[in-house]
Queue: 2 jobs
Job 1
Amino acid sequence: MSGSALKGTSRIILLGPPGAGKGTQAEMLSRELGVPYVSSGNLMRKYQEEESPLGRKIKGYTDQGLLVPDDIAIEMMLKEVLPPRNLGGFILDGFPRNIHQAEALDESLSRQGTSIDRVVLIKIEDVEELVRRLGGRVVCRRCQTPHNLNGASPGTEGVCHRCGGELYTRQDDVPETTKVRIKVYEMQTQPLIEYYNRTAKLLEVQGTGSVDDVSRRLVESFSA
Ligand code: ADP
Ligand code: ZN
């Protein structure tokens, strides 16, 4: 893909409902731009595995499809994006997830003399499509790469195509929890579209079709 079109854009937020393909596209962008991919969901799951009091607390929310309290999410994520970490930029997936988190991020970046360059909304309006995608999703235990059992991604029987790790179904990808997560997105995260639209940084890309289709649209939208 033409990396040149993307140069000079290094602080990016990916927005979109659960199942829109943010993680997959974030990895593509991360490779194209050479800036790290930071996923709040992956971080939450890493903390959960540690079986610490904090991990157990986080699990109490994620298992139900609810947002982890802002103080935890904000502290965890600002540590990743503020100096000394990731000075050259980042691609954020899953954070910010509500207005309060967005304001905290903006304020911290502005204290560093920087700001977000672009916000990309990956749009899928058909809720049934989201539920179907999430229902077919399995994730690598080792590197967290998402795979799809509905045939959208290269799948080798229960094994990650990237690292050979074991694929498993996330606790929160069961249908009842999936529906809660979509509702939480609509209520809390969707208002961010308007929030970022005001600063004219928002790009919109259709999330339907194949992974490559969406990647192509994404790169094109950056150069438009
Ligand atoms: P999705 O597949 O819905 O994009 P993620 O992997 O991004 O899910 O997040 C999984 C869960 O982790 C969320 O349902 C939520 O409980 C928690 N979480 C992730 N990011 C945040 C955040 N920024 N604020 C609060 N909770 C979060
Ligand atoms: Zn893997």
Note: The mean pLDDT is 90.
Job 2
Amino acid sequence: MNYVDAIDAPLERDGSIKLHGPEGFEGMRKAGRLAAECLDMLAPMVKPGVSTETLDRTAFEFVIDNGGVPACLGYRGYQHTTCTSVNHVVCHGIPSPKPLKDGDIVNIDVTVIVDGWHGDTSRMYPVGVINRRAERLINITYDSLMLGIAAVKPGNTTGDIGHAIQKFAEGERCSVVQDFCGHGLGKLFHDAPNILHLGRPGQGEVLKEGMFFTIEPMINLGKPTVKILSDGWTAVTRDRKLTAQFEHSIGVTKEGCEIFTLSPKDLHRPPYV
Ligand code: MF3
Ligand code: CO
Ligand code: CO
């Protein structure tokens, strides 16, 4: 893999890993903050009876009203601002008019563009009162994301990130989805490198100051295998068991990393009340 200064990089995915300077960090801070504020804004709305379509429409208005553009709208034909993945839906759940019900868990994933920069983040939301297995899965998934983030510093590798996530999640008798991964982002939505949520220490790409990417582990209570529904988007667990995901957009710094999508209201993980 070759590394290029982001200023000289083409605006199409060409396999190179971009290295960004202060201007990129400033841009990603703004984009990341708006995405995180959108998830904060939705927290009190996620209750039994609300539809994911209503949540999506509210997210759309919030992003537009605050100077952003929803990156998913029109992306590869996708028609919505958010992905809303309920219970056994792993990711890319399409917002629907069906009301959420007590005991559901839902991931809301939003990506915004601000001044050309992408902020991509997701969190799990409990709907009403959820059972202990669901609560445990949500906590394991959040902790696995933060352990992956803790492995980010120059000189470490993408394999170190994946290993930290896999070791912890599997140690908790959960499984890691292999079919989707984190990704470089910046002026592009999905760029190099791929960030697998499993791996071996020292393998993969060496991390360098100025790299921007997401970490977004999907963790299952059952088997890791997924299937895509006939709508072409919705990914579900084959065994229909529960799955959870959290996502942050981060930038590699001299010492470690900066998280661009931290919740300004400290709504990092449930309970949000
Ligand atoms: N936000 C998702 C991610 O984390 C991508 C969604 S693509 C869409 O990469 F088209 F489904 F919106
Ligand atoms: Co992402
Ligand atoms: Co996302």
Note: The pocket of cobalt (II) ion (ligand 2) is lined by residues 120, 183, 214, 216, 247 (CB under 6 Å).
